[in-house]
Write a structure and sequence with these properties.
alpha+beta; Nucleotidyltransferase, domain 5; Dna Ligase, domain 1; disordered C terminus
Length: 429
């Protein structure tokens, strides 16, 4: 855990990751040297997610509230009223969508215009299929008077015809609604929702990686997600509803408790038996078998692990290896990336160079080294996306996070004004 810091005078950036086993919350300050992580906390009292799907908004709301309360206490701030959130989901798909504006005459390309076009694209997709919701829109490229550019236009740029192209992450409508319901039950506000693949891309991939092509393999507890990106475009997003938890359950079948199986996996587990230099024999408590313990060889444990890994990884490698020459690197991340030998195991299955993903370059030097662990990459990526959002929408950041009372008063005023106008129109009829 990060060290405690002095009492903060402003609301920090806060990210929440809704995982199958934990709800994690991270707070950070933006400095000239990168993100200074102030602390991270987690809640795991209930199961609120299953295979990347919210199954209980009530439990999720409780855990969001608890994680943020613990985090506020850790960094010595009175309250954390809002957060950016990242979600995954096995039903997520990627579609392309575009919006066009003819401004009649050459005018500035404002952030308000870009926001309108983004909202139009969201509504366009959801109108085509009422059963889906746009979870996140990622800019693909822009066209100003026929000239293409990858970076978002700035207000100093002028154009008559503006086109915005997005890659949209879509999922079942109830996923978005359940996340919203979770925050409603927590009495906290969600500033914006992002999808985990986009958060990880921002945390792990360099500009060169994005241009030349990269693959990110995210090992979660109950899902494993493969995301492929090249240029400015997401090419693949494939979710396998299996993860590290399933490996632990396989080890449990020997006769030990689930908790001990997890410890055994983390301490002695290896992704493949042929990667082991020794084959030690050890005895482990197994209350469910006669004698209360079992003898186990290191290679036997590795065989159990690799059998499940093959089931998870082989379908994903089949997708990527068909076009391996399109990608410069494959990054592995997530809690499952801590498994011994996982990088070598994967390298045996592909010609793409395999590396551990790292977000350390985005953290300030005085941030605790523990915050560089793979399990925190999605949180760091969400913080980076949240920071960019606040830079583009400074008024929203001020009213929605730092001054929630002001926002409520503003909304009440607008409602009153609307009501008065409606009454006047009725009197004039």
């Amino acid at each position: 855990m990060a060290k405690k810091h002095k009492i903060l005078q402003s609301v920090p950036l806060v990210a929440i990751d809704l995982g199958s086993h934990n709800v994690r919350a991270m707070a950070a300050e933006v400095t000239d040297h990168g993100l200074r992580v102030l602390g991270v906390e987690a809640s795991n009292k209930f199961q609120c997610m299953e295979r990347g799907v919210v199954i209980s908004p009530a439990n999720a709301g409780f855990m969001i509230n608890e994680a943020l309360k613990l985090l506020a206490n850790r960094i010595r701030i009175e309250a954390l009223p809002s957060a950016f959130v990242s979600v995954g989901g096995r039903t997520m798909q990627i579609v392309s969508v575009a919006s066009k504006r003819d401004q009649i005459r050459k005018r500035e390309v404002t952030q308000e215009l870009l926001d309108e076009m983004e909202l139009e694209c969201k509504k366009k997709i959801e109108a085509r299929n009422p059963d889906v919701a746009v979870l996140d829109l990622v800019p693909y490229y822009y066209t100003l008077d026929g000239k293409q550019q990858d970076e978002p236009p700035t207000p100093v740029q002028q154009a008559t015809i503006v086109q915005a192209h997005f890659m949209a992450f879509v999922g079942k409508k109830d996923l978005e609604q359940k996340v919203i319901d979770s925050f409603s039950r927590s009495a906290k506000r969600m500033e914006r929702m992002y999808v985990r693949p986009d958060a990880l891309l921002n945390a792990l991939a360099s500009d060169d990686d994005m241009v030349e092509g990269c693959v990110i393999l995210d090992f979660g507890a109950q899902t494993t997600t493969l995301t492929a990106y090249k240029g400015t475009q997401y090419l693949h997003n494939k979710v396998i509803p299996l993860g590290g938890y399933d490996i632990t359950r396989d080890i449990e079948q020997i006769g030990m408790s689930l908790a001990y199986a997890e410890q055994l996996k983390c301490r002695y587990g290896c992704a493949s038996a042929n990667l082991l230099e020794t084959n030690h024999r050890f005895r482990v408590p197994a209350p469910n078998v006669p004698g209360g313990e079992v003898a186990l060889m290191e290679k036997d444990l590795a065989d159990i692990i690799s059998s499940r890994l093959d089931q998870i990884i082989n379908p994903l490698m089949e997708i990527i290896n068909k076009e391996a020459d399109r990608y410069k690197v494959l990054y592995i991340t997530g809690g499952g990336a801590m498994l011994k030998g996982i990088d070598q195991y994967l390298q045996q299955k592909t010609t793409i160079p395999v590396m551990y993903g790292s977000h350390a370059c985005f953290l300030s030097p005085d941030t605790d080294d523990e915050m560089c662990m793979p399990m925190y990459s999605s949180l760091v990526g969400t913080l980076l996306l949240g920071n960019e959002y606040r830079k583009k929408h400074p008024l929203a950041a001020a009213t929605d996070t730092g001054l929630p009372i002001f926002k409520a008063l503003r909304d009440m005023t607008l409602d009153l004004f609307t009501e008065q106008e409606t009454n006047r129109e009725q009197e004039n009829e």
